[in-house]
Amino acid sequence: MKKLVLIPLALFIVLVIFLFKGLWLNPREVPSQFIGKPAPMFDLPQLGDPSKNFSPKDMLGQVWLLNVWASWCVSCREEHPLLVEIARSGAVPIYGLSYKDKREDGLAALQQMGDPYVLSASDFTGRVGIDYGVYGVPESYLIDKAGIVRYKVIGPLTPQAWQEKVLPMIKELQR
Amino acid sequence: MKRMWLMLALLACLPAGAMAKEAPEMAADPALEKRVMAISEDLRCLVCQNESLAASHAELALDLRQQVREKLKAGASDKEVVDFMVQRYGDFVLYKPPVKPYTLVLWYGPFVLLGIGAATLFMFLRRRMQIGKQAQVAMSDEEKQRVETMLKNGIGEDKA
C-alpha cells in the first residue's frame, strides 16, 4: 500500500523533468520540412544586375549556402560580419536571397556592411521565401551538390553553430 | 539574443495599422473571403505562434493569407491549400495536428490516463468493499450474540 503512494510522486517527478526540459527548448525552431528534400526551384532577377536571373539550377554540382536576408532585418546585421568572414575564408559560396526588400535598400546595406554574397537574388514579393518556408529572417540553407537541402539555420548563424555544425557538414558534403 | 527575437516577434504582431501598411486585403467576393478566413483560423501564424493566421497582422501572415486567397480563387480545394502550408511549414502550422505515430500519445494519451484513473478508482472501491465484507464475515456467532445483547441491554451489560 505504501508503494502505491509513491506512484503519484513518480508521475510528478516525470512531469517536472519534461517541463524543465521544455524550458530550454526554443519554440521558434520549427523543424524544417526541407531537410533531405530538393531545394525549391525559382528563377529570380539578381539584385546587382536585374537583367540577369539566378536559379538554384545553376548551382548543381556545388555545395552552397543560401542565406535569406533583408536590409530591414536587424538580426541580419548581427549575422553579417560572420558571413563576410566565411566568404573571405572561401569555405563555401554564399548566395543571398534578398527577402521583401527594395533593391536600393539592399544594395545600400551591402555597400555599408560588405558583400559576402557571390550574388543575391531579389525576392521582392516574398513568394520564394514562402516556398522555402521562411518565417523569420535571416535563415540559411545548406544545399548539396545534388540540390538537396541538408541543413537549415533559423535566425542568425552564430560562430559556434558555424564551427561545430555547418562547417563540418560542408566538408563532409564537399568530399 | 532570445529577448531580441521576442521583441521582433512582438513588433511583427503589432496591428497592421501601426505599420501603416494595409496590404490588398479582402477579396471582393465575400463567400471567398469567408473560406479564406475559415482556413486561416486553423493555421498557426509562424511569426506570432500563438495567433492564428486569420488573427495575425504579421506581414508574413498577410502574405500567406493572400496566397490562400489566390489558391482558392484558382479553384484549389481547402485540403490542397492546407497541404500547401504543411509542405512548407510542417504539421506545426496546424492547430489540429494529424493522427500520426508520433502524435498518438497526444491524441490518445488523455484517454489512456482516464482509463488508468478509472481502473485505479474501481480497484480501490472494490478493495474497500471487500474489507467491509471481510469485517462482517469475521464475526463469530459468539460475537454476534454479544452485539445483540449490547443492543438490547445497553453497553456494558453483556458482561454481567
Characterize this entry briefly.
Chain A is an alpha/beta fold.
Number of helices of chain B: 7
Rg of chain B, Cα atoms, Å: 33 Å
Helix content of chain B: 55-70%
Low-pLDDT segments of chain B: 16-23
- Under CATH at level 1, the class of the largest domain in chain B stands as Mainly Alpha
CATH class of chain A: Alpha Beta
Beta fraction of the residues of chain A? 15-25%
The CATH topology of chain A is Glutaredoxin
Q: How large, in whole angstroms, is the Cα Rg of chain A?
A: 20 Å
Fold and architecture overview:
- The complex is a heterodimer of chains A (175) and B (160).
- With 175 residues, chain A is α/β, with parallel strands linked by helices.
- Helices cover 40% and strands 18% of the residues of chain A.
- Chain A has a 5-stranded mixed beta sheet.
- In chain A, strand 1 and strand 2 form a beta hairpin.
- Chain B folds into 2 domains: 2-97, Helicase, Ruva Protein, domain 3; 102-153.
- The longest helix of chain B has 34 residues, at 104-137.
Summarize the SSE layout with pairings.
The complex is a heterodimer of chains A (175) and B (160).
Chain A: H1 2-23, E1 44-45, E2 53-54, E3 64-69, H2 74-89, E4 94-99, H3 103-113, E5 119-123, H4 127-131, E6 139-143, E7 149-154, H5 159-174
Parallel strand pairs in A: 3-4, 4-5
Antiparallel strand pairs in A: 1-2, 3-6, 6-7
Chain B: H1 2-12, H2 16-19, H3 30-41, H4 59-73, H5 78-89, H6 104-137, H7 141-153
Helix pairs in contact in B: 3-4
